[in-house]
């Protein structure tokens, strides 16, 4: 039942060879990876006004221009900086890899944790803001706001589980529709002003205070949400068609120009139309003045709603790629590096959707409450990424390195200043949660990495371990298969046991790529083992099916009446939380194999020691262990 529903929602699985067709070029990469930053046009301007209006009243419409100009300058600094990141780190991972390679492991973990938090908040903020836009235009939907938010999270999750190519088609067209509708709003708004239209005076009853630097910095911090999503392009370079770096840099340049036109245009238009965002969503209110309750008014409202919802898709593209890179480095559970049926990182997609849905429920879909948590994470990653590139130029130099170092150094300085501004001005509004959460995530990631190091130490096979397989045995009327994922002490233990119960033993491996199979063959030869190794390639990443097909094949020559014992290697860890970090494929294999009456399943356990005991034997500081791994 579950498998049928899965096929209906997600579609047929794709083989590994289809991965090249699942990448996008500039046309579809632009809306997918820029929708987060572009959608900020819908709320960044109004968040600036939320800060300025209560303090300085009507003067807010003048000061917003200064704040917007500063944000646009910062945007182009980031664009130039991230173009260099794309050139030097084309395999994705963005700030995490840049910081780790150039500033050390701890800096990389901090960047990865901060960016992960930002991606999760992107989904919560974008969807909550999108629903705000639509309930402003269609007030009868207000009681169903949270239900709508959760439905849209589910919709985005399913859309992305269907694969990169399909999701780019689903979510790309609405992004272009939003760009054209807002461009039409800006042009029509200025044409209407030139034709003599005089906007109504806003009803502002706020007391007027002096314009202070602190006030402008606070507004600047709120408006910097317009820059979230800029880093997504550098994180997802591997998702582009070749030449990937060229396509990624083109998308980043176009993204910056679009934000410049749309964000700058709408905030400037707001200074003439004097919209008050407390009365509703800023763009929808402006559309009401420019177009009236005509067709274009509803087009602006609808496309704004859709782009804000689909802006979350940038996170669904960036977050799974980021955590997959971190999983390969073993700072988060390895399962997050595994691709699903449609060659997307499905575990990352599901986790992102689940945590975002929880945030929406906890904060009741309140955009202003969520926005206080929002930008600090991404600007921490901005700072570490630019600082990492700055250090890289100082070390490696190269052509025009002085200019490149200046760009990245200035970018690091400006984004660091923004981090301080946001942390101070928005600390009481919720930024304290992120300030506390990031260190906790960093601590958890370090624990995960140290656990994997301890496990690897205990499972590592050396040439001396070949003696473990030299054992006398009695012959049983039994045929034995030992499925091995890799060559380690757990699999050696299972093979050793197999030789005690039969002289007809086969080591069986399912590889999802040729490189993995090649490495296993080379390591297996090292043991000079008499047990033959059979490797089967699985283009659809299935484990059980190739094993059953092999048993039924002529190559295995199964005879009626034969009993087959499948010995599954398994290692057990000491702590409950460590179990989450490892695959439990053996449970599924055992359950399915026991459905066959001629197959006996045996689990051969290897009890691992506590991480602390293993790491203590190294006689090195933990930070040294992290650096040397």
TrEMBL record:
InterPro entries: AA/rel_permease1 (IPR002293), APC_K+_Transporter (IPR053153). It comes from the Bacteria. It is a multi-pass membrane protein. One of its GO terms (molecular function) is transmembrane transporter activity. The chain crosses the membrane at residues 66-82, 103-124, 144-161, 173-191, 211-230, 251-275, 295-322, 343-363, 369-393, 405-424, 430-450. It is found in: Membrane. Coiled coil: none annotated. Keywords: Membrane, Transmembrane, Transmembrane helix. This is Amino acid transporter-like protein.
